[in-house]
Design brief:
Blueprint lengths: L13 E5 L5 H8 L4 E6 L6 H4 L2 E6 L15 E7 L8 H8 L3 E12 L27 H10 L2 E8 L3 H17 L5 H7 L2 E8 L1
Parallel strand pairs: 1-2, 1-4, 2-3, 4-5
Antiparallel strand pairs: 5-7, 6-7
Length: about 200
């Protein structure tokens, strides 16, 4: 069975981080030290020191711009973490990114679960509608079916809850309260705020 390019954090591989944000490059490079990091974002708000870690930055509006400048069959890993919920055309964006991935490459997509509609409102977004830039709910089934129809194998998918965070939650909560840093993110992986799909291109 073919192994994922991210099974080994020391392996040299290319990552395309879609919706990369201001500090994603340093976070990912701290985990995957030998990776070559490429980023896409609508806004250029990445700090100058972060740009030193980026092989290339694509300033692209995912809803309106062409993906022609992004090379095909080039990336080992593509990440869309909390991006598609901000798009009305998230499925189309996923489909247009598929050719950019090498055969055997992996795609990771994370997005708010429909469960989030039942969570209380909280600063930092715990209820889906807390963020006014959220445009659409997606679900695991529709994304998985799109990937399956385009030559992908689903490695794993579903609701994302972290058992370690659940066990440590009382300590995390107390620490956050003491430091005054409690926010919605404290509860995301305990309550299962996000869903995810992790797939490999055949």
């Amino acid at each position: 069975v073919a192994r994922s390019p991210i099974d080994n954090a020391t392996k040299d591989f290319t990552i395309l981080d879609v919706g990369c944000g201001p500090h994603s490059a340093s976070i990912i490079k701290s985990i995957f030290k030998n990776s070559k990091y490429y980023g896409i974002d609508k806004y250029v708000y990445t700090p100058a020191d972060e740009f030193k870690l980026i092989e290339k930055f694509y300033n692209i509006d995912l809803e309106d711009d062409s993906f022609n400048d992004i090379p095909d069959n080039f990336f080992d890993v593509i990440i869309l973490a909390h991006v598609i919920e901000h798009l009305s055309n998230g499925l189309s964006v996923i489909e247009r990114l598929m050719p950019k991935l090498k055969k055997g490459g992996v795609l990771y997509i994370e997005f708010p679960s429909v469960k989030s509609l039942n969570f209380p409102s909280m600063k930092g977004t715990l209820h889906f509608c807390d963020d006014p830039t959220h445009k659409r709910l997606y679900d695991v089934k529709e994304i998985s079916n799109l990937l399956l129809a385009n030559g992908f194998t689903i490695i794993k998918a579903g609701n994302l809850r972290d058992p370690v965070r659940i066990i440590l939650f009382p300590a995390i909560l107390i620490s956050s309260l003491i430091r005054g840093t409690i926010g919605a993110g404290t509860f995301w992986y305990v309550l299962g705020f996000p869903d995810f799909v992790f797939a490999r291109k055949r």
